[in-house]
From TrEMBL:
<dbReference type="Pfam" id="PF00005">
    <property type="entry name" value="ABC_tran"/>
</dbReference>
<keyword id="KW-0813">Transport</keyword>
<protein>
    <submittedName>
        <fullName>ATP-binding cassette domain-containing protein</fullName>
    </submittedName>
</protein>
<dbReference type="InterPro" id="IPR050095">
    <property type="entry name" value="ECF_ABC_transporter_ATP-bd"/>
</dbReference>
<dbReference type="InterPro" id="IPR027417">
    <property type="entry name" value="P-loop_NTPase"/>
</dbReference>
<keyword id="KW-0547">Nucleotide-binding</keyword>
<dbReference type="InterPro" id="IPR003593">
    <property type="entry name" value="AAA+_ATPase"/>
</dbReference>
<feature type="domain" description="ABC transporter">
    <location>
        <begin position="2"/>
        <end position="242"/>
    </location>
</feature>
<dbReference type="GO" id="GO:0005524">
    <property type="term" value="F:ATP binding"/>
</dbReference>
<dbReference type="InterPro" id="IPR003439">
    <property type="entry name" value="ABC_transporter-like_ATP-bd"/>
</dbReference>
<keyword id="KW-0067">ATP-binding</keyword>
Length: 257
Protein backbone atom coordinates (compact mmCIF):
# COMPACT_ATOMS: atom_id res chain seq x y z
CA UNK A 1 0.00 0.00 0.00
CA UNK A 2 2.83 2.37 0.91
CA UNK A 3 6.32 1.89 -0.50
CA UNK A 4 9.17 4.27 0.17
CA UNK A 5 12.39 3.34 -1.57
CA UNK A 6 15.54 5.32 -0.83
CA UNK A 7 13.51 8.45 -0.06
CA UNK A 8 15.23 11.71 0.84
CA UNK A 9 13.07 14.51 2.24
CA UNK A 10 13.56 17.94 3.72
CA UNK A 11 11.54 20.15 6.04
CA UNK A 12 12.78 23.62 5.10
CA UNK A 13 16.58 23.35 5.44
CA UNK A 14 16.49 20.20 7.59
CA UNK A 15 17.18 16.91 5.85
CA UNK A 16 14.85 14.63 7.78
CA UNK A 17 15.28 11.47 5.68
CA UNK A 18 18.35 10.41 3.79
CA UNK A 19 17.47 7.37 1.66
CA UNK A 20 14.74 5.95 3.88
CA UNK A 21 13.09 2.72 2.77
CA UNK A 22 9.86 1.39 4.27
CA UNK A 23 7.12 -0.86 2.99
CA UNK A 24 3.64 -1.12 4.50
CA UNK A 25 1.30 -3.66 2.92
CA UNK A 26 -2.47 -3.64 2.49
CA UNK A 27 -4.34 -4.52 5.71
CA UNK A 28 -1.26 -4.00 7.87
CA UNK A 29 -1.62 -2.27 11.23
CA UNK A 30 1.52 -0.45 12.22
CA UNK A 31 2.68 1.83 15.04
CA UNK A 32 5.60 4.16 14.43
CA UNK A 33 7.47 5.12 17.57
CA UNK A 34 10.34 7.53 17.95
CA UNK A 35 11.62 10.42 20.03
CA UNK A 36 10.82 14.08 19.29
CA UNK A 37 12.24 15.07 15.95
CA UNK A 38 12.70 11.47 14.72
CA UNK A 39 10.66 12.21 11.60
CA UNK A 40 7.28 10.61 12.40
CA UNK A 41 5.13 13.56 11.31
CA UNK A 42 7.33 14.13 8.27
CA UNK A 43 6.76 10.54 7.23
CA UNK A 44 3.00 11.00 7.47
CA UNK A 45 3.25 14.22 5.46
CA UNK A 46 5.05 12.34 2.71
CA UNK A 47 2.24 9.78 2.66
CA UNK A 48 -0.51 12.42 2.67
CA UNK A 49 1.36 14.34 -0.06
CA UNK A 50 1.66 17.48 2.01
CA UNK A 51 5.39 17.09 1.41
CA UNK A 52 7.25 15.70 -1.59
CA UNK A 53 10.52 13.77 -1.54
CA UNK A 54 13.63 14.85 -3.41
CA UNK A 55 13.51 13.60 -6.98
CA UNK A 56 16.57 11.39 -7.44
CA UNK A 57 17.54 8.20 -9.25
CA UNK A 58 16.66 4.89 -7.54
CA UNK A 59 14.23 6.70 -5.26
CA UNK A 60 10.45 6.32 -5.29
CA UNK A 61 7.39 6.79 -3.14
CA UNK A 62 4.47 4.69 -4.27
CA UNK A 63 0.99 4.68 -2.82
CA UNK A 64 -1.35 1.88 -3.86
CA UNK A 65 1.26 0.86 -6.41
CA UNK A 66 1.50 4.25 -8.11
CA UNK A 67 4.16 6.92 -7.96
CA UNK A 68 1.71 9.54 -9.20
CA UNK A 69 -1.32 9.90 -7.03
CA UNK A 70 -4.58 11.66 -7.61
CA UNK A 71 -5.23 13.51 -4.35
CA UNK A 72 -9.00 12.94 -4.53
CA UNK A 73 -8.39 9.27 -4.96
CA UNK A 74 -5.90 9.24 -2.09
CA UNK A 75 -8.30 11.01 0.26
CA UNK A 76 -11.02 8.51 -0.44
CA UNK A 77 -8.68 5.58 0.20
CA UNK A 78 -6.88 6.87 3.30
CA UNK A 79 -8.42 8.83 6.16
CA UNK A 80 -5.96 11.15 7.92
CA UNK A 81 -6.26 12.56 11.44
CA UNK A 82 -3.54 14.77 12.82
CA UNK A 83 -2.94 17.43 15.42
CA UNK A 84 -2.00 19.83 12.60
CA UNK A 85 -5.39 19.28 10.99
CA UNK A 86 -7.06 20.02 14.33
CA UNK A 87 -5.03 23.22 14.71
CA UNK A 88 -5.69 24.37 11.16
CA UNK A 89 -9.41 23.73 11.20
CA UNK A 90 -11.73 26.63 10.52
CA UNK A 91 -13.00 27.43 14.04
CA UNK A 92 -16.54 28.52 13.17
CA UNK A 93 -17.45 25.46 11.13
CA UNK A 94 -20.31 23.43 12.59
CA UNK A 95 -19.64 19.85 13.65
CA UNK A 96 -21.84 18.55 10.84
CA UNK A 97 -19.97 20.64 8.27
CA UNK A 98 -16.61 19.40 9.59
CA UNK A 99 -17.67 15.86 8.77
CA UNK A 100 -19.18 16.89 5.41
CA UNK A 101 -15.97 18.72 4.49
CA UNK A 102 -14.29 15.31 4.42
CA UNK A 103 -16.19 14.52 1.21
CA UNK A 104 -14.55 17.53 -0.42
CA UNK A 105 -11.08 17.26 1.12
CA UNK A 106 -11.63 20.76 2.50
CA UNK A 107 -10.77 22.33 5.84
CA UNK A 108 -14.12 23.78 6.82
CA UNK A 109 -17.21 24.29 4.75
CA UNK A 110 -16.80 28.02 4.02
CA UNK A 111 -20.52 28.03 3.16
CA UNK A 112 -19.98 26.89 -0.41
CA UNK A 113 -19.87 23.12 -0.21
CA UNK A 114 -22.94 21.56 -1.72
CA UNK A 115 -23.28 18.10 -0.27
CA UNK A 116 -25.85 15.68 -1.60
CA UNK A 117 -28.64 14.43 0.67
CA UNK A 118 -26.79 11.09 0.88
CA UNK A 119 -23.60 12.84 2.03
CA UNK A 120 -25.50 14.73 4.74
CA UNK A 121 -27.16 11.50 5.89
CA UNK A 122 -23.80 9.71 5.99
CA UNK A 123 -22.25 12.57 7.99
CA UNK A 124 -25.14 12.49 10.47
CA UNK A 125 -24.84 8.72 10.83
CA UNK A 126 -21.12 9.09 11.56
CA UNK A 127 -21.80 11.71 14.22
CA UNK A 128 -24.08 9.21 15.95
CA UNK A 129 -21.63 6.33 15.45
CA UNK A 130 -18.80 8.32 16.97
CA UNK A 131 -20.82 9.42 19.96
CA UNK A 132 -21.52 12.99 18.92
CA UNK A 133 -25.30 13.08 18.43
CA UNK A 134 -26.79 16.43 19.38
CA UNK A 135 -23.54 18.26 18.60
CA UNK A 136 -24.40 18.75 14.94
CA UNK A 137 -24.62 22.55 15.03
CA UNK A 138 -21.89 23.22 17.61
CA UNK A 139 -18.92 25.20 16.33
CA UNK A 140 -15.64 23.36 16.05
CA UNK A 141 -13.86 25.77 18.37
CA UNK A 142 -16.46 25.21 21.11
CA UNK A 143 -15.83 21.48 21.26
CA UNK A 144 -13.51 19.78 23.73
CA UNK A 145 -10.27 18.25 22.44
CA UNK A 146 -11.81 14.79 22.74
CA UNK A 147 -14.87 15.83 20.75
CA UNK A 148 -12.70 17.50 18.10
CA UNK A 149 -10.63 14.35 17.71
CA UNK A 150 -13.77 12.21 17.30
CA UNK A 151 -15.12 14.69 14.78
CA UNK A 152 -11.92 14.57 12.73
CA UNK A 153 -12.11 10.79 12.88
CA UNK A 154 -15.69 10.99 11.56
CA UNK A 155 -14.43 13.31 8.80
CA UNK A 156 -11.71 10.80 7.95
CA UNK A 157 -14.26 8.00 7.72
CA UNK A 158 -16.74 9.59 5.29
CA UNK A 159 -15.37 7.71 2.30
CA UNK A 160 -15.11 4.42 4.18
CA UNK A 161 -11.35 4.43 3.59
CA UNK A 162 -9.21 1.32 3.27
CA UNK A 163 -6.74 2.77 5.75
CA UNK A 164 -6.60 5.23 8.61
CA UNK A 165 -3.47 7.20 9.43
CA UNK A 166 -3.34 8.98 12.76
CA UNK A 167 -0.64 11.21 14.17
CA UNK A 168 -0.53 10.76 17.96
CA UNK A 169 -4.25 9.96 18.18
CA UNK A 170 -4.76 10.40 21.93
CA UNK A 171 -2.46 13.37 22.57
CA UNK A 172 -4.21 15.93 24.75
CA UNK A 173 -7.12 13.62 25.58
CA UNK A 174 -8.13 12.73 29.13
CA UNK A 175 -8.16 9.09 30.18
CA UNK A 176 -11.84 8.49 29.38
CA UNK A 177 -11.62 10.23 26.00
CA UNK A 178 -8.45 8.29 25.15
CA UNK A 179 -10.00 4.94 25.96
CA UNK A 180 -13.15 5.88 24.04
CA UNK A 181 -11.12 6.86 20.97
CA UNK A 182 -8.99 3.72 21.18
CA UNK A 183 -12.07 1.55 21.25
CA UNK A 184 -13.36 3.32 18.11
CA UNK A 185 -10.02 2.58 16.45
CA UNK A 186 -10.29 -1.05 17.49
CA UNK A 187 -13.66 -1.36 15.79
CA UNK A 188 -12.23 0.21 12.62
CA UNK A 189 -9.51 -2.47 12.60
CA UNK A 190 -12.13 -5.15 13.17
CA UNK A 191 -13.31 -4.55 9.62
CA UNK A 192 -9.89 -5.71 8.34
CA UNK A 193 -8.69 -2.25 7.35
CA UNK A 194 -5.16 -0.91 7.56
CA UNK A 195 -3.99 1.51 10.22
CA UNK A 196 -0.83 3.49 10.82
CA UNK A 197 -0.37 5.49 13.99
CA UNK A 198 2.55 7.51 15.22
CA UNK A 199 2.87 7.72 18.95
CA UNK A 200 5.03 8.41 21.98
CA UNK A 201 2.83 6.30 24.22
CA UNK A 202 2.97 2.55 23.95
CA UNK A 203 -0.28 2.29 25.88
CA UNK A 204 -2.13 3.65 22.84
CA UNK A 205 -0.87 0.80 20.68
CA UNK A 206 -4.11 -1.14 20.49
CA UNK A 207 -3.90 -4.96 20.50
CA UNK A 208 -4.92 -5.03 16.81
CA UNK A 209 -1.63 -3.34 15.85
CA UNK A 210 0.83 -6.10 15.21
CA UNK A 211 3.85 -4.37 13.69
CA UNK A 212 6.02 -1.68 15.27
CA UNK A 213 8.61 0.50 13.55
CA UNK A 214 11.16 2.40 15.63
CA UNK A 215 12.36 5.61 14.04
CA UNK A 216 15.36 7.58 15.23
CA UNK A 217 16.97 10.57 13.52
CA UNK A 218 15.21 9.79 10.26
CA UNK A 219 16.21 6.14 10.18
CA UNK A 220 14.33 2.92 10.82
CA UNK A 221 16.32 1.29 13.60
CA UNK A 222 13.94 -1.62 14.23
CA UNK A 223 10.89 -2.99 12.45
CA UNK A 224 8.97 -6.16 13.17
CA UNK A 225 6.30 -7.93 15.19
CA UNK A 226 5.18 -5.94 18.23
CA UNK A 227 6.38 -8.47 20.80
CA UNK A 228 9.88 -8.43 19.32
CA UNK A 229 10.15 -4.67 19.11
CA UNK A 230 8.45 -3.43 22.27
CA UNK A 231 11.09 -4.64 24.69
CA UNK A 232 12.70 -2.84 27.62
CA UNK A 233 16.12 -2.99 25.94
CA UNK A 234 14.99 -1.56 22.61
CA UNK A 235 12.87 1.24 24.08
CA UNK A 236 15.59 2.15 26.59
CA UNK A 237 18.04 2.47 23.70
CA UNK A 238 15.55 4.45 21.57
CA UNK A 239 14.74 6.99 24.28
CA UNK A 240 18.18 6.83 25.90
CA UNK A 241 16.73 6.27 29.31
CA UNK A 242 16.17 3.20 31.45
CA UNK A 243 12.68 1.89 30.64
CA UNK A 244 10.76 -1.21 31.61
CA UNK A 245 8.05 -2.59 29.38
CA UNK A 246 5.30 -5.04 30.24
CA UNK A 247 2.40 -6.58 28.35
CA UNK A 248 -1.02 -7.70 29.49
CA UNK A 249 -3.84 -8.94 27.28
CA UNK A 250 -2.28 -7.39 24.21
CA UNK A 251 -1.79 -3.95 25.83
CA UNK A 252 1.66 -2.61 26.63
CA UNK A 253 2.83 -0.19 29.24
CA UNK A 254 6.13 1.39 30.06
CA UNK A 255 7.66 2.89 33.17
CA UNK A 256 10.95 4.34 34.24
CA UNK A 257 13.13 1.50 35.42
N1 LIG B 1 8.10 23.08 9.36
C1 LIG B 1 9.36 22.74 9.64
N2 LIG B 1 10.39 23.54 9.33
C2 LIG B 1 11.67 23.19 9.58
N3 LIG B 1 12.02 22.03 10.17
C3 LIG B 1 11.04 21.20 10.53
C4 LIG B 1 9.65 21.50 10.29
N4 LIG B 1 8.91 20.47 10.74
C5 LIG B 1 9.78 19.57 11.25
N5 LIG B 1 11.04 20.00 11.12
C6 LIG B 1 12.27 19.29 11.53
O1 LIG B 1 12.22 18.01 10.93
C7 LIG B 1 12.69 17.02 11.83
C8 LIG B 1 11.63 15.94 11.99
O2 LIG B 1 10.49 16.52 12.60
P1 LIG B 1 9.13 15.72 12.76
O3 LIG B 1 8.11 16.71 13.21
O4 LIG B 1 8.84 14.93 11.56
O5 LIG B 1 9.50 14.73 13.95
P2 LIG B 1 8.53 13.93 14.92
O6 LIG B 1 9.14 12.59 15.09
O7 LIG B 1 7.14 13.96 14.39
O8 LIG B 1 8.65 14.76 16.24
P3 LIG B 1 7.59 14.99 17.44
O9 LIG B 1 7.52 13.70 18.15
O10 LIG B 1 8.20 16.05 18.25
O11 LIG B 1 6.28 15.39 16.83
C9 LIG B 1 13.03 17.74 13.13
O12 LIG B 1 14.42 17.98 13.11
C10 LIG B 1 12.28 19.04 13.04
O13 LIG B 1 12.95 20.07 13.70
Amino acid sequence: MIELKQVTAYQQQTRVFDRLSLHIGYHERVAILGPNGAGKSTLLKLISRELYPVDQPDSSLKLFGNATVNLWDLRSKIGFVSHDLQEDYTPYTSALDVVISGFFGAIGAHGHLQPSAEQVDRARALLVELGLPGDEQRMFQRLSTGQKRRLLLARALVHQPQALILDEPTSGLDMGASLGLLSLLRSFCGAGRAMIITTHHIDEIIPEIDRVVLLSQGQVIADGPKAEILTSARLSALYQTDLQVSEQNGWYRCWHG
